[in-house]
Design goal:
With 183 residues, the protein is of the alpha+beta class. The protein is 27% helix and 29% strand.
Length: 183
């Protein structure tokens, strides 16, 4: 292992933008065309500063280098960097609504070493501590196996429209947590 998980800070944003681009262009390449990935960078694959402000976005560091990131949200959005949002979104009701798992990206040199799973565990613990009984997410095709292996079931498949008439196929997934039990 040898890495640490901490909450992201606003000062991390420039590094996270670079990580997101590198991760997307490399790890998403078997699933999406270069044009689809490029169209998704910014509106879909981007730093969501609201997650950082809410204290719900984690980074994984190895020797003071960020090698992964991901988080959860108590707000409506399923994806995106928030650049096109007009205002802060309202807070979800944990007894009725599902928390949102959001924006997981891992450095390609650190892929498949448990970083995504470690971030997901940290998110689920925080989600439970916030009183949520379930979590939803909009997974990329590359991320679907991680979430399926962690107990998330497929609710639906759809395509997010992007620039130049392109779209990005994604999978809406969900997981319920039992009351009183940690994930």
């Amino acid at each position: 292992m040898g890495w640490t998980i901490r909450l992201a800070r606003e000062a991390d944003a420039p590094i996270l933008e670079q990580l997101i681009r590198l991760s997307s262009m490399t790890l998403q390449a078997p699933y999406y065309s270069a044009e689809q990935i490029e169209a998704a960078l910014g509106p879909i694959f981007a730093v969501d500063h609201q997650l950082i402000r809410d204290g719900t976005y984690f980074v994984v560091e190895k020797e003071n280098t960020i090698v992964g990131c991901g988080g959860w949200s108590k707000r409506q959005a399923f994806y995106g960097g928030g650049n096109g949002r007009q205002a802060e979104q309202s807070v979800l009701d944990p007894l009725i609504d599902a928390a949102r798992i959001r924006a997981f990206f891992v450095h390609p040199g650190w892929a498949r070493r448990g970083i995504g799973g470690a971030i997901l565990t940290a998110c689920e613990e925080a989600i439970r501590a916030a009183g949520f009984l379930k979590a939803d997410l909009s997974a990329t095709l590359a991320g679907e196996p991680l979430y399926a292996a962690s107990g998330y079931g497929v609710k639906e498949r759809y395509e997010i429209p992007t620039a130049n008439g392109l779209s990005l196929p994604v999978v809406v997934m969900s997981k319920a947590f039992q009351k009183g039990r940690q994930p």
